[in-house]
Amino acid sequence: MKTFQCGLLSVYIGAVLAAQPNIVLFITDDQDVTLGGMKPLVKTLKNIANEGASMMNAFTSTPICCPSRASILTGLYQKHHQVLNNSIEGGCSSRNWQLGLEKSTFAVALKKANYSTFYAGKYMNKYGQKSVGGPEHVPPGWDSWVGLVGNSRYYNYSLSINGTAKKYTTEYLTNVLSAFAEEFLDYQRPENSPFLMVLAPPAPHAPFTPEPKYVGKFKDKRVPREPHFNTANNSDKHWLVRMKPVPLPNETVELLDDYYAMRWETLLSVDDLVETVVNKLRRSELLENTYIMFTSDNGFHLGQYSMPWDKRQPYEFDVRVPFLIKGPNISKKSMSTNPILLIDIHATILQMAGVQPMSTDGRSILPIEPTGNRTFYLEYRGEGSEKYDPSCPWRDNHLSLCSSKACCKCQDSTNNTYSCVRSVIDEVEDFVFCRFEDDEAFVEAYDMIKDPYQLVNLYPGLDPAKRKHFSVLLDSWMPVED
Ligand SMILES: *[C@@H]1O[C@H](CO)[C@@H](O)[C@H](O)[C@H]1NC(C)=O
Ligand SMILES: *[C@@H]1O[C@H](CO)[C@@H](O)[C@H](O)[C@H]1NC(C)=O
Ligand SMILES: *[C@@H]1O[C@H](CO)[C@@H](O)[C@H](O)[C@H]1NC(C)=O
Ligand SMILES: *[C@@H]1O[C@H](CO)[C@@H](O)[C@H](O)[C@H]1NC(C)=O
Ligand SMILES: *[C@@H]1O[C@H](CO)[C@@H](O)[C@H](O)[C@H]1NC(C)=O
Ligand SMILES: *[C@@H]1O[C@H](CO)[C@@H](O)[C@H](O)[C@H]1NC(C)=O
Ligand SMILES: *[C@@H]1O[C@H](CO)[C@@H](O)[C@H](O)[C@H]1NC(C)=O
């Protein structure tokens, strides 16, 4: 991998400025980057990537929606924010969250610095539930609030508009968010106080429903048949990946191809949303002084290692996310291989705004100069479920997401719980070491430079000194048990 840096970057001085910049952050839902998830976003690539930087090594530290969104909002690893899964008991939009860390999101910090703040779209999966304050609860720091009640959907949902619920049945959510964004931008002027805008559309999350005008646009697209697609021998991986059938039968593969195409189609509406926002900023003469970031909460897989469709695994397709950034002093068409994490967004936004940094687990990604080594942590708590697909044989609440459409192959389980340490030393070494909390205390280790598709788990043959080294390194990142 090569780093492309242009001269301009080195003159970046950051810090406090006379005219504080505006900040726009797009957060898509479950958008992979490794399977081609950015390809349909032609206008986004033109307006953000070509006008700024593509961060080629961006990761989530927890590949599941609610914990990852908590990491974005707070700059903390899951082990520190304790939003452990997508349920209220797991901390997702829970009372504890509301009474605690929700008060130290980047929005609160920017509000204190007189930013005008706006949020529209999916927030945390359990936002708006009655037991946690309902849609009347407006998270602190936001002047204008359009929060999706519950998890991503495309039709038939409720939005909390400044604390008042409004039901929408037939309006496509991405487009509704676009209209709210335009309305917010109507009031922004270069001479006014700066603004922060977060737009979180549902795409390309399940049920992968495209806007009618885009249905069938990509009907011939298929999941790329890369070396890790529908592999026939997964015997070196943890038990959930080994679960039968391996490989998936043809009718499941056909379904995966359909989902792949539909996901791309849902992203066309996101592309329109981005274009609408960029055009509006340009017309209002706000574009030059606005940072725009585009990313996703986690990646996704469809058929890799014969797993059906989901996230929640420690592999590249689930932990890598798209990340584009444009703005003052970011060189056009640049690409950076700096390893960055979604927990860096908090510190980055504070730096952009010239606000006093807070103590978080992340660090600002600006200026985009080669940063060299980085070691980071990945963690996930597996989930079980009481819900069963009646056509599947499993009646075990330690398993979840077992669908007859995927031959009852389960996609998660309570012991799909893992911690990993990833050590990236310039471009010389990139090693990931993961330990599962399952019956086998299974370990997987990959040399990401030699084996980017993670086809060979090196752990069984790893020499004892290296085993020890990575094991000790991982322990040093793990939370201390109480
Ligand atoms: C961009 O760089 C110029 C020249 O070094 C500097 O004056 C300006 O403050 C920088 N702007 C930002 C937002 O960093
Ligand atoms: C979510 O996390 C909480 C707290 O650890 C746990 O009680 C709950 O069972 C988890 N939910 C699922 C579905 O695993
Ligand atoms: C925010 O605006 C208020 C009122 O205009 C002003 O008193 C205060 O100093 C400003 N705070 C900052 C951090 O700029
Ligand atoms: C929310 O309330 C603020 C303050 O009154 C207002 O400026 C904003 O337009 C409202 N947002 C929406 C979406 O109605
Ligand atoms: C819309 O959602 C409600 C529950 O929020 C449900 O009862 C209803 O069946 C849904 N309608 C459609 C058309 O999906
Ligand atoms: C599957 O791969 C493992 C090594 O990962 C190898 O030992 C085994 O022989 C392979 N099995 C088959 C049936 O090819
Ligand atoms: C499944 O698909 C593969 C690849 O397209 C093909 O070679 C094979 O014959 C198909 N199997 C069946 C049982 O249709």
UniProtKB/TrEMBL annotation:
Its cofactor is Ca(2+). Residues 21-355 form the Sulfatase N-terminal domain. GO terms for biological process: glycosaminoglycan metabolic process. The conversion to 3-oxoalanine (also known as C-formylglycine, FGly), of a serine or cysteine residue in prokaryotes and of a cysteine residue in eukaryotes, is critical for catalytic activity. InterPro entries: Alkaline_phosphatase_core_sf (IPR017850), GlcNAc_6-SO4ase (IPR012251), Sulfatase_CS (IPR024607), Sulfatase_N (IPR000917). It comes from the Eukaryota. Gene3D superfamilies: Alkaline Phosphatase, subunit A. The modification 3-oxoalanine (Cys) is found at C65. Pfam families: Sulfatase. GO terms for molecular function: glycosaminoglycan binding; N-acetylglucosamine-6-sulfatase activity. Keywords: Glycoprotein, Hydrolase, Signal. PANTHER family: N-ACETYLGLUCOSAMINE-6-SULFATASE FAMILY MEMBER, SD21168P. Belongs to the sulfatase family. This is Sulfatase N-terminal domain-containing protein. It comes from Apolygus lucorum (Small green plant bug).
